[in-house]
Amino acid sequence: MGLEGVEPSVFVSDFLAKCGGYAVVDGGFATELERHGQDLNDPLWSAKCLISSPHLVRRVHLDYLDAGANVIITASYQATIQGFEAKGLSTEEAETLISRSVEIACEARQIYHDKCTKDSWDFLVDGNITRRPVLVAASVGSYGAYLADGSEYTGNYGDSVTLESLKDFHRRRLQILATSGADLIAFETIPNKLEAQAYAELLEEEGIDIPSWFSFTSKDGINVVSGDSICDCASIADSCKQVAAVGINCTPPRFIHGLILSIRKVTNKPVVIYPNSGETYDAERKTWVKSTGVADEDFVSYAAKWRDIGASLFGGCCRTTPNTIRAISRILFDKSSLTLSKADM
Ligand SMILES: C[S+](C)CC[C@H](N)C(=O)O
Ligand SMILES: N[C@@H](CCS)C(=O)O
Ligand SMILES: [Zn+2]
């Protein structure tokens, strides 16, 4: 789709208007691959399926489209040139796999729309079938995702990692994703201010002409995971004209309310929220462990509250499923039941 001269903020506000004021983002991508039987205990994590099972990558996008997603996020979170090369692939093969992640999501959208047209599934406006708007967001996981040690949940990259080294790390993949047919870039699970600054400078230097969102992770509801202030991080996103939305992902639901209020203090850009289930990630075993304390399983019921304090795009991250997304969609658009049982997660 591309910006074609449209301001990023206008592009997203038009999209939100077409969706009915709010948009539904998809849910845990890797989680759904695991539910389809994939073992992701690998340095490439979900990106390994771009090599071994692209048909499942397409299947997962279709699962989320069937559940009501308006934004599907590509399998490129942990797909990096450096990561693929470490597996013995050539640079060219790595670059092809990265663009392929976007092509597969676009194919899924086409399949979904063709099916809807055939079955007249989408809503009717004045007797005409209207397609549900669907954007393909190309995922850029943080440098910590590539490290494959869970450091997107700490943001501690050590002193050798600088603004320039982060820009060099991300540059080529960003160029590929921005020219691969995606509608926007989703910078996900950003753990610190340095990486947000690196992304903002790269967007400017590379003249990236599709909009982006910046989405941070937090483990206390006050700061991002590194301890940097969420307001400082969101301000970087606010100052970058190519950033069309700012928010939080892969963070326990109980922290989201306060984070939205903090983000709102420093930006009027739309807020995107896609929390995880509230469980804790064990990076060594690459598995999730149930946390004690607050029951986060019913977080879908919070979505209406997050909407009321100013968020606009809602989905789920790790350990959420198409059922979570179906329930979010129902709540946002006031369809039937407002409750979600644990079984729905
Ligand atoms: C958002 S985390 C669950 C992604 C996986 C992590 N980068 C790892 O490789 O262990
Ligand atoms: N888009 C990625 C984010 C991981 S935190 C996924 O859903 O697997
Ligand atoms: Zn996640």
How are the secondary structure elements laid out?
Elements: H1 8-19, E1 23-24, H2 29-35, H3 48-52, H4 54-67, E2 71-73, H5 81-86, H6 91-119, E3 124-125, E4 128-129, E5 135-141, H7 143-147, H8 163-178, E6 184-190, H9 193-205, E7 212-216, H10 230-239, E8 243-249, H11 256-266, E9 271-274, E10 280-282, E11 287-289, H12 303-308, E12 311-314, H13 322-332
Parallel strand pairs: 1-12, 2-5, 5-6, 6-7, 7-8, 8-9, 9-12
Antiparallel strand pairs: 3-4, 10-11
Helix pairs in contact: 4-6, 4-13, 8-9, 9-10, 10-11
This protein binds S-methyl-methionine, 2-amino-4-mercapto-butyric acid and zinc ion.
Descriptive account of the structure:
- With 345 residues, the protein is α/β, with parallel strands linked by helices.
- It has one domain (8-344): TIM Barrel (Alpha-Beta Barrel), CATH 3.20.20.330.
- The protein has helices at 8-19, 29-35, 48-52, 54-67, 81-86, 91-119, 143-147, 163-178, 193-205, 230-239, 256-266, 303-308, 322-332; strands spanning 23-24, 71-73, 124-125, 128-129, 135-141, 184-190, 212-216, 243-249, 271-274, 280-282, 287-289, 311-314.
- The radius of gyration is 18 Å and the shape is globular.
- The two termini are 32 Å apart.
- Bound molecules: S-methyl-methionine (A1LUD), 2-amino-4-mercapto-butyric acid and zinc ion.
Main attributes of the structure:
13 helices; TIM Barrel; two-stranded antiparallel ribbon; BHMT-like; binds zinc ion; Hcy_S-methyltransferase; Homocysteine S-methyltransferase 3; single chain; S-adenosylmethionine-homocysteine S-methyltransferase activity; binds 2-amino-4-mercapto-butyric acid; alpha/beta; metal-binding; globular; binds S-methyl-methionine; 12 strands
